[in-house]
Amino acid sequence: MSVTIETTAATDPVRKPPWYRSLFLQLLVAIVAGILVGKLWPDFGADLKPLADGFIKLIKMVIAPIIFCTVVLGIAHVGDMKSVGRIGVKALIYFEVITTFALLFGLLVGNLVKPGAGFHIDAQTLATGAEKIAKTTKNGELPHTVDFLLNIIPASVISAFAENALLQVLFFAVLFGLALAKFGEHGPPVILEAVDHIGKIFFTIIGWIMKLAPLGAFGAMAYIVGQYGLSALSSYGKLIACCYGAAVLFLLVLAVVVRVFAGVSLWKLVKYIKDELFLALGTASTEVVLPRIMIKLTEAGCSRATTGLVIPTGYSFNLDGATLYLSICVLFLAQALGVDLSLGEQITAVGVLMLTSKGMAGVPGSSFLALSATITAIGHGSIPVAAVALLLGADRLMDSMRVTVNLLGNCVATFVVARWEGQLDSDRMRKVLDGEEVPPLEDKDPMVAYTAEEA
C-alpha cells in the first residue's frame, strides 16, 4: 500500500494554460487597476476594502488544517523524532542568525543614508501621537517572551484551530505526526490515509479560492491608494527609498546565501513563485500565499517535513523584511528629532528588536508596538514614544517591501535547512526551477511495517 500526495496543482508541466488565464497577468492587471481606481476615485477605492478582507478571510479559513495535514504527513514520513528535532533546531538557528543580520544591516544603512535628516520635528508637536498609535494598535501590546513561548502550547486542540493560531496548530501537528509514526508498526495506516485525503480536499478548496485572487488584490490596492494616497511618497521619499534600497541589497545577500548553502538561484526561484509574490504584494499579506508556497517548495525538492516545519515557523520567527524596516525606522525617528543615538543605544535597540520582532505576527499595528517598546528601552528622553506616530503616513507604503523580503526569506530558509538536513532533492530542484518536466511526487507509505502479511 502506498500513499501518494499530488502536488501538481502548483505546476502543470503537461498542459500550459492560455496566457489570459495566467494568475501573474491577472494579478498585474488587478493591481494596476486598483492603483488607478484609488487615485482617480479615492473614496470609492477606500470602500473596496471588503473585497480584500473577504479574500484574506477565505484563505485563513483553510490555513490551519492545511498546515496540520502537511506537517503530519511530512513527519510521519520521516518517522524519527531526532530528525524532526534537528530540523526545528537548525531552522531556529538560521532564523536567529539571519534576522540579527537584517537588524544590523538596517542600522548600517540607516547610519549611512540618514533618512530622517532634514525633518526637524519638534517633540512638543507630538502630543497627540500616543492617541494615534493607540487607535492604530487597538490598545494592544506585544506578548512578553515567556508569554509568547507559553502561548505556543494551545489551551486545547480545538481552540488552536478555532483561533487560527498557526504556531499552536504546528505544535500539535508535530506531536500528532510523531505519535502516528510511533504507532505505525502496530496497525494499518488508516489515519495517515485519512489525513492525506483531507489534505487533498483542502488543497482543492484553496484552488477554488485562488480564482478570486485578482479581485482581492484589486480591492486591497484600491483601498491602500484611496485611503492613504500617494502624497506620502513625496513627504517620506527618502525613508521609502532607503527601505526599498536596503531591501534590494538584503535580497542580494539572500541570493548569495541560498546559492552557497543550497545551490539555488534566487532569480529562478523568484520566477518560479512570481504568482505568489504578486499576490502577496497586491494584498500586503504573506499568509494568503502560505498554502501555495508550501506546495511549490515541496514540488521543488524540499521534503514535506522541512517545508511543513520551516514555513509556518518562519512566519513568526523569520520576518526579515519587518526587522530590516524596524531597525531603519529607529534611526529615522532619532534623526527626525535631531537625536544622535550612541553605539550603546543602537545595540540596545537591536537587542530589544530581536525579542519584539518574534511576537509580531498577527498583532494589529505590531510594527508600531515594537518600535514603541524599543524607544522605551533605549530610554532617551529626547525621543518620546509618541514619535512613532510620524510613521503612520508611510507605514502602509512599506508593506510591499516587507512582504517581499519576508516571503523570499522564508523560501530561502526552507531550501537552506532542507539542504543542511540532507532533505533536498537537488536534481529535482534544478529541473523544476529550470521549467523542465518532472514526475509527480510519490512517497512510499511511512508505515513501512504494515505489510501484506499483517493485513
Task: Describe the fold and architecture.
The chain is mainly alpha-helical. The protein has helices at 23-40, 42-46, 49-78, 81-113, 129-137, 145-150, 157-162, 166-182, 190-210, 213-228, 232-235, 237-262, 266-272, 274-283, 290-299, 304-317, 320-336, 343-356, 366-378, 399-420, 426-433. The chain starts with 22 loop residues before the first helix and ends in a 22-residue tail after the last helix.
Any chance you could write out the topology, listing elements then pairs?
Blueprint: H1 23-40, H2 42-46, H3 49-78, H4 81-113, H5 129-137, H6 145-150, H7 157-162, H8 166-182, H9 190-210, H10 213-228, H11 232-235, H12 237-262, H13 266-272, H14 274-283, H15 290-299, H16 304-317, H17 320-336, H18 343-356, H19 366-378, H20 399-420, H21 426-433
